[in-house]
Specification:
- The structure is a single chain.
- This protein has 176 residues and is mainly alpha-helical.
- 53% of the residues lie in helices and 0% in strands.
- It is elongated, with a radius of gyration of 32 Å.
- The termini are far apart.
């Protein structure tokens, strides 16, 4: 019998926010039209659109699956998480191709190590970005001290009144 009453490997840290993780089931659900873009967190939406884009699906198709406009898909593709996810997917694809070539002795182990290091760097950058976004959201939700800006009041300059010379009337009323 174990010394512990619970599985130590299954215990997760209680301090800090939970780390974001990919959800591959989300891709299939989206392709079946069961995901609405407004129900997703911004990070999940960017990741999902990057995954679908990497799989060569068109903007129109993705918009139809996620029940949103093409413009929304285009805007999400420009977000940092989507850009880094696309770069990570490209690096992983290059690593797989290099691994296949390495099996055929076309790629040196040093080149393979360089590609894998680049993939890991992109994965770390994406993780850091997602953590930073979560921290900024947490900070934005905290109440902050109100800042009052006082502008000095400057007296308005008064324009001098123009005095107009009396003019002749345009029409005269004839008396009878």
């Amino acid at each position: 019998m174990s010394d512990h009453l619970f599985d130590v490997a299954a215990v997760t840290a209680l301090h800090g926010p939970p780390r974001w993780q990919e959800d591959d089931a989300l891709i299939e659900a989206a392709m079946n039209g069961r995901v609405h873009h407004s129900h997703l967190q911004p990070v999940d939406r960017a990741w999902l659109i990057a995954q679908l884009t990497h799989r060569n699906h068109t903007t129109e198709t993705i918009a139809a699956w996620l029940h949103c406009s093409r413009r929304t898909v285009q805007m999400v593709r420009r977000e940092a998480v989507a850009v880094l996810t696309l770069r990570l997917l490209a690096a992983e694809q290059a690593a797989k191709r290099a691994s296949a070539r390495a099996d055929a002795a076309r790629v040196t182990p040093a080149a393979m190590a360089q590609i894998l290091a680049e993939r890991d760097r992109f994965r770390d950058q994406r993780g850091q970005l997602i953590d930073q976004l979560a921290e900024m959201r947490r900070r934005c939700n905290e109440p902050c001290d109100q800042i009052v800006i006082v502008k000095p009041i400057q007296p308005r300059r008064r324009r001098p009144q123009r005095t107009c010379a009396p003019t002749m009337p345009l029409f005269e009323v004839a008396s009878r």
